[in-house]
Amino acid sequence: MSMESTEQDVEKIGTYFSEMSHVFLEEYKNKGLKKHTKIILDFFKDKDLSDDVVVELGCGVGGLLYKFLELGAKNSYGIDLSESMIENAKELAKALNFKEKTNFFIGDFNSLSKGVLPINQADVVVADRVLCCSPVPLEILQSMINFKPKYLIVVQPRKNILSKLYMALRIWLRHLRYKVKHHDQETPYMPVKEYDKLCEDNNYKRVLQKFRYGWEIVIYQKNK
After folding, report:
1. What is the CATH number of the domain that holds 173?
2. Prediction pTM value
């Protein structure tokens, strides 16, 4: 894939989420996090995060980062393509008294490897429904690995027709409810074995793979 087409894809994705930022903020305020995130949080609820830094790629309004902070994480960094998402995240962090432990940055999906964040190491790196939006998911995963975290978290769409229909219906209903323009959003599936191989080559092992509604949740842990 050419650099030009990749940049066009990134710009298209950023435009979509900027247009939808008010919708995601309202949904978070009214309903909280998506239900599949409970699987992630349950995995970490008994772990000591007091010295840990969490980075989330495609952080949106920051909801998952706030939960990690509630679990005891020391600090957090969020990066998102959408400027309006980041603005909403900063306002929400302030309202929830997490301003001192949150750091938000605007950047594309590969900005992790370009020095956008003022850190080069983290303990937990999350890509919740992010790799599936990118034309270069393995490059992004490698950028996540470069932070040398203890844990890597990936959430992507499940590969079956019922899940695809379920996701398409949810997106259509959301656009209808909030009267926003519909965009064709492809959610390609990358076989987990591809993620496994890259992670294993970098001394990580898969420690969790679960499914919730239309989503597949995978967690990798660095080998000791």
Report:
1. 3.40.50.150
2. 0.85
